[in-house]
Amino acid sequence: MTRKQKILVTGATGTVGRHVVAELLARGHEVRALTRDAAKAVLPAGVEVAEGDLTAPGTLAPALEGVTGLHLITFGGAAYTPLETGPRILETARSAGVRRITVLHGGGPTPLEDAVRADGGIDWTVLMPVEFMANALEWVDGIVASGEVREPFVTRLSAMVHEGDIGAVAAVALTEAGHGQQEYVITGPEVLTVGDKVTTLAAAVGREITLVELTEEQALARWRAAYLPEDVIGFLLEAYGNTPEVGRTVSGTVEKVTGRPARTFAQWAAEHADAFRP
Fold it and tell me: Gene3D superfamilies from the entry (predicted)?
């Protein structure tokens, strides 16, 4: 058991951030969550809320007081734009005595991650998760309304990861030695097709779910009807139609770092089954 530490978590209410918070609390550490508006923050009991803004590093000093570890996201502000303030954030963190930083990779190069990787004064760990299991929540409406999942490229492979396992890896890297200057690709324990996921969900929900394969043209029409930007559509086409090897290869990182196996999609589906029921 590591000694009790205080960790500042940014993005604490997000898909991954809330699991970082939960894992740190479960391990007996103190958690402080950074928010631009403390009155609007909804966080678990025992979490200290601190106001500050990653786009204005001068506001961070009070939030970093007494903190040994810092979990960072790579975007900020109301528009969620890539942060250009990495060097000043790191300078403020070093001055406050922060020893370890984790950065949630944003899907590509970002100025903040680049600044962290270039820093030699703090132990940093870049967390690089593949597809989130939570992406399956995009199917809720179709399953509830008609018992269908409509997707293109249904044979694509994914080593999708449980968000709780990302949080667990972050919690270890933030509180234990030996993870500095490391890049961790974080995956689940198995490689699944879209059909595998649908079958697993159906078993968890206790309802038949039909998989309808869309053509690429039908998928494009749907995404454009949802007003997705063309760069996002291009990313989806590449990610789904030509999934890179890293996204479909089990890494083993969760077990190596945390000492326990990565959680399966069946576990995730059981935890979220009610969301898919009428």
Answer: NAD(P)-binding Rossmann-like Domain, UDP-galactose 4-epimerase, domain 1
